[in-house]
Amino acid sequence: MNQIERIREMEQCLDVSAAAVRRMADALEEYEAAQKAYKKLSDYYGSARWLKDYEDDESGKLPRDLKRGVLSEDAVYDLITEDHELKVRMMKLLASAMEKHLV
User: Fold this and answer.
1) Distance between CA 68 and CA 57 in Å, rounded?
2) Whether residues 8 and 44 fall in one domain
3) Residue 80 near residue 44 (C-beta atoms within 8 A)
4) Structural domain count, the chain
5) 20 and 68: one domain?
6) Do 41 and 76 contact (CB within 8 A), yes or no?
7) Same-domain pairing of 50 and 13
């Protein structure tokens, strides 16, 4: 590979990496902003209030047109599981990145 090809290749690496870092920063800001809502949801899930709402839904006491995915046992549980897996993935990525830069 000659010098010009190398510089062009590295310029493309810079462009791809910079765009990915910007998208990750934006996604992380959105994720951080949602943490208050996530905490509120995870506190609600499985609580006495959630159980009462769930039972009332099962008894037909709630309006049929009410959006209530939060009362399905799977929706919130799946979100909590996915969030946990994402955090583990981010930790592994961070540990790997730090190890590569420290060695």
Assistant:
1) 9
2) no
3) no
4) 2
5) no
6) yes
7) no
d(CA 25, CA 23): 5
Residue 75 to residues 24, 37, 79: CA-CA distances in angstroms? Answer: 25, 15, 6
Query: Which residue bears the tokens 């910007």?
Result: 22
Which residue type sits at 8? R
Q: 96: domain range?
A: 35-103
Residue whose structure tokens are 């609580």 = 47
Residues 59 and 90 in one domain: yes
Give the predicted TM-score (pTM) of the model. 0.80
Per-residue model confidence as pLDDT tens for the chain (103 residues): 899 999 999 999 999 999 999 999 999 999 999 999 999 999 999 899 999 999 999 999 999 999 999 999 799 999 999 999 999 999 999 999 898 886 5
94 in Cβ contact with 88 (< 8 Å): no
Q: Is 63 left (phi over 0), alpha (psi -120 to 50) or beta?
A: beta
Question: CA–CA separation, 10 vs 68, rounded Å?
Answer: 50
Domain identity same for 54 and 23: no
